[in-house]
Amino acid sequence: MNNPTLSNEAEKPIPDIRKIIKDIIISRGDEVDKWFEDISEKTPPFFYNSVDLRNSGFKLAPVDTNLFPAGFNNLNETERKKAEKTTKEFFAKYHPKVKKILIVAEDHTRNVYYLENIAYLTSIIKGAGLQVCTTNLATSESGEDVTLKSASDMDVIFKPAIRDGNRVKTKCGFDPDFILVNNDLTDGAPELLKDVEQIVSPPVGFGWYRRRKTSHFETYNNMARDFSNKFNIDPWLITTYFQRCGVVDFKERKGIECVALRVDKTIDKIKAKYDEYGIKEEPYVFIKSDRGTYGMGIMTASSGDEVFEMSKKIRNKMNTIKGGIQNTEVIIQEGVPTIDEVEGHPAEPMIYMIGAKPAGCIYRLNTQKDSYGNLNAKGMGFASISSHTNDKQVCDSLGLISRIASHAAAWECYEEIYSI
Question: Fewer CB atoms inside 10 Å of the end CB: C or N, the chain?
Fold first, then answer.
């Protein structure tokens, strides 16, 4: 695939999506804030999330919304200070009685960069004037404190947590008002958090054992359409087409027909929009697991034939996600080629949100991929957006789309199941 080519021969002008959003913020900023405030009053946002965006110049849309974000260590000092301020504002507005927070982290404690993330997340919460303690499920099962070193040699201490009736406390007596989950719960809902009386955010039912990307994007697309209708833009410019296949076995080639058919249907819809705007580009899609993170179980395709022609190596790669869990449900999602670059390498914005407000804007880049590929893969790195652009308002436009995605996440609905 070549870089996106735009034609001016179309009936409609080629949209400059960042300019469109910037103009809305400048001319109708108060209305935008009121629109978000009305949503917050109906369903308050979660404490945090991160949003992966793709910017093609004519289109700016979320391609993933992570409710258990890592990577707070990638924020620069200014962004961390902003995160502290936003954290303080979030709890003052939504949970004014909260003074103590318990972070329930992932168990993969050999990842020193994840530990760095926990260290900085803890620092942000402390900087907001709150007390904080960290645990994880493995430490709670062992009953012993664990101290580990992060990538920059900071101590990260995990305290075992126990149940005391309907409350979760640490073994050493830390009794939190608020439990912040930083574990994606792919393996299921932990008994430790079942029916607790404290606030749990995000709720346990939003773990990847229950949550589906298609549910999120259905909710997001509906909310984005409402926004687009109010502010007079084509909703396609800030959304992606997608479809789902729910019974797939890549290894045994079962359900492949569903994937191939829906790839072709999605490609046809994208092509119709490209023709409408005169975009001279080959449409493509991402095929990825309908649940889970870590960039696993992902491939691109520009036709259904490519699905039928998958090699055994690709089928094996697509067959499993985190923890060796079989990938039986996939989302076929419109591919958005990125025009963003860092030092000549393709990049995509990652927006860190607190209380559905942007706290940090960074690029994920990849030295081994092109502008069409999955950048959450080997070869990736991170860079501050503010250090690679002269547009001081760039995070405002990125943040607006991310705010819609953040609120949409809180509007998803999942039942908590503990019998898995």
Answer: C
| CA-to-CA dists, residue 311 to 171, 267, 306, 317, 319, angstroms | 51, 21, 10, 10, 12
pLDDT of residue 7: 45
61: buried, middle or exposed (CB in 10 Å: 19+, 13-18, 0-12)? buried
Q: Which of 179, 206, 233 is the last residue of a domain?
A: 206
> Residue 342 phi/psi, 5° resolution?
-130, 115
* Single residue among 172, 188, 206 that ends a domain in this structure: 206
Domain that holds residue 109: 72-206
Q: How many CB atoms lie within 10 A of CB 197?
A: 9
What is the C-alpha to C-alpha distance for residues 123 and 72, in angstroms, rounded to an integer? 10
Q: What is the pLDDT of residues 181-207, one digit of tens each?
A: 999 998 899 999 999 999 999 999 999
Q: Is the dihedral of CA 45, 48, 52, 56 positive or negative?
A: positive
* 387, two tokens: 């250090």
Q: What are residue 245's DSSP bridge partners?
A: 330
Residues 28, 148, single domain; the answer is no
Say whether both 198 and 233 belong to one domain.
Answer: no
Which parts of 106-209 are beta strand (E)?
131-136, 146-149, 155-158, 161-164, 167-170, 178-182, 199-201
3-state secondary structure of 80: helix
419 occurs within a structural domain: no
Position 407 pLDDT exceeds 70: yes
pLDDT in tens, 286-319: 999 998 766 677 999 999 999 999 999 999 889 8
Q: How many CB atoms lie within 10 A of CB 2?
A: 11
